[in-house]
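Hi team,

As requested, here is the filled-out complex form for the arginine run. I kept the field names the same as last time so the parser does not choke. Let me know if anything looks off before we queue the next batch.

— J.
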Amino acid sequence: AGAESSAAGGKLVMVTNAEFPPYEYHDNNDIVGIDADIAKAIADKMGMELEIQDMAFDSLIPAVQSGKADFTAAGMTVNEDRKKNVDFTDTYAQAAQVIIVKDGSEIKAPADLDGKKIGVQTGTTGDIYAGDIKDGNIQRFNKGMEAVMALTQGKVDAVVIDREPAKVFVKENAGLKILDEAFTEEEYAIAVKKGNTELLEKMNAAIKELKDSGELQKIVDKYITA
Ligand code: ARG
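And here is what came back:
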């Protein structure tokens, strides 16, 4: 299959959705961020080249399943449903879904989202959790940033999205804030094709080394300043 043959050729193909700072985003023609750096460090440890391809978030798991890519690193939350389709490495980050609102919004906690218009990125856990909101009117966007733009324009009442990109988007757009109470706690991991234990084990060994050596924390600190 594709995954094995590209691995044998000395190159690992990673897919991501580079609309998710600080984990993956465009910097001129490059895709940079925590996931890009972690993937590069893992590939280095495996003695392999890394190629990163950008695509829609909801195409990532299918790309891994079909063998078009060896793995996806995309700030992807581990959940039971996805585990049916891909195998996840050990987790490398704690995360959360948070709620962004306009300053002065009447939405002050997750419970206030009932009956409101919620912006999310298609196929994300934010999308899934927003589905649980009573009478919620979910508006799906290709990019998290587009959901945030809709919020600034008053087209949605709130955005449910991961905490770190939320911090970046709120910083870039005046008049927005993140509610103190998170919606969910989650964990990120890399996903490989189901049954590709050889790659999974190599990646887990590399992740462990990166954790133990402090290299992983260094990568995080490069992109997230307290
Ligand atoms: N953590 C969320 C999820 O897994 C959002 C990830 C979005 N990642 C991205 N690269 N756009 O659904």
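Two things worth flagging: The first helix runs from residue 2 to 8. The chain has two domains: 2-92+189-223, 95-185.

Thanks,
J.
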